[in-house]
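Extended Data, panel c. Modelled sequence:
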Amino acid sequence: MDSTPYAAQAQILSLAVVAHQNLLRDDGPHRATLRGARDAFAIAAATMAVGHPGQAALDLADRITELLDAGRDNLQTLVDQMPPTRTRGLEWIGPMAFQRRATGVDGIDHDHGDHWGRDHDIRISHRRPHDGTTGLLYAYSRGWDEYTVLGERVSVSTVDAARQAALESDPRMGESAWRLFIDQARLLGRPAVDRGIHTSWLL
């Protein structure tokens, strides 16, 4: 399990599995204690995976204990219930850190959809001056209350082309469309490379 992106959660879930198996074998007065331990391990793993305590973590913990009660105690099955990891290659930062990074970037936020990604909780915005053609392209995750900067001087044409390509691939703005938006924005936003052949006169 160490090869999974959820190695720490897998270790806690393995303790939940052990507690559950002991629960099944114990008909005595310790059943309530074992059930409490199993549920506590499930909540701990779910909270770690979600990133914060709350209803989402409790719902995930309930899903784990329901699987255990149904006899599905394979560790990989339980780990597969964990939410997806953050998109690779992106640095997600909190609101204060984002405000510091965006200091000096004046302009108006032009939104390009607010339900991108697997959980449809990501908003993509392009902040640029009223009459400007380039600006700060960033995304905000409501589920994590975090921001990521996709580009600091991105043109309107690049954003529009990336959005169009992503929506053509998946109009529902799912995970594949979100990743395609990122890839296209990065690809189209790169400086053009002069591929011309330079020659000189031979004297």
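Residues 158 and 187 are 9 Å apart (CA to CA). This feature is highlighted in the accompanying rendering.
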